[in-house]
# Entry
Amino acid sequence: MKIIDEKNRCGWCNSSALYQNYHDEEWGKPVYDDATLFEFLLLETFQAGLSWITILNKRENFYNAFDAFDYKKIAQYSDDKIQNLLQDAGIIRNKLKVYSAVTNAQNFIKIQEEFGSFSQYIWAFVNHTPIDNYPKTLKDVPATSPISDAISKDLKKRGFKFVGSTVIYAHMQATGMVNDHVENCWTRN
# Structure
């Protein structure tokens, strides 16, 4: 894909138009919808150990393979469906990650039942208000935070998989719980 334009953006997204679109349209914008929060959670867990652009390039395949990220359907996946996913070259065919998608969907629903919504649960960790770190450069953007540590610990206690602090911090960035757009990024204007 051709790069969109020459706007000042966070340096991590300048290698492709797909990255730039994601940065401009989604990254760092607050998300309160449970379906979208689950989509990013699923994608972030598959990203663990890989680059985000790898996941973005396969996002549509994930959408199709995982029933439009419908966590209610995913929570009910049969072994046959899981085996089909493990044969799908369009996604990341990591057995543990595929199984974790089902487990995480089941636990996502349990959190909804306990808190009314996953959004209520996760946003409570930041008092329902995005944190703006105002980083000057990419070097000032952390990989984790005490809050991502706490969320990770709580999710693991609830049975979630592939939700280490780095994955959770990336989820917080993707869903706007934390704003890490650098100082000269056009999105700050």
Notes: The chain is about 50% helix and 0% strand. The chain has a mean pLDDT of 94.
